Amino acid sequence: MDAIRSRLNPHFLFNALHTLAALVKFQPTIAENAIERLGDMLRYTLKEDGRELVEFAEEYEFTRQYIAFEQLRYEDRLKVDLHIDPESFHFDVPPFSMQTLAENAVHHAISVRPQGGSIWIRCSCQKRGLSISVRDDGPGGATDPAQSHQFGLRSLRERLRAAYGSSAELTVQDGKEGFEAGFVVPTCSESPARDRGSVRGGR
Questions:
Q1: Distance of CA 62 to CAs 3, 54, 57, 68, 96, Å?
Q2: pLDDT tens digits, residue range 78-113?
Q3: CA-to-CA distance for 168 and 50, rounded, in angstroms?
Q4: For residue 85, which phi and psi values (nearest 5 degrees)?
Q5: 61: nearest Cα among 85, 39, 40, 86
């Protein structure tokens, strides 16, 4: 888990700096706003202190900041439909979980197409727990698994197993109409990570 965490933040930062480089070159007036947003996001990455779970509200806000950051670069090429069940805020999730799915969709379905595309983010509460999914209308997931954005999905699968055991598993669906990845997490009281006292740090 320490090895995964040591790669996760640099992976995110690398993609963010790539976005900034494009903005500085082609849209310098927007770059300043993007740098401020990146600063807000880095506060979250620095705050992540080894906790296996964080409050859904924290991860949701970080994902919103990430999407706004990427929309500065892609503008109308990146269309996002976001639906959040209010009950979602009663759950804990692994840090970078929802954001990883969103980042994968942006780099897989938006950046590779001149016309851009759309992603749909859904968070809904079910009997099994909280379901989080991100779907895009890109060309599918037939890419080289060694590409950097695939690391995010692999690390998320490992972190879900570490936090929830067999109670949570990453699922993917790859088809002609796009790619979808999602997972379901149990209630806080059913989480092994909570029993280990790693939720919310020193609160």
A1: 22, 11, 9, 10, 8
A2: 999 999 999 999 999 998 899 999 988 998 889 888
A3: 19
A4: -70, 125
A5: 40
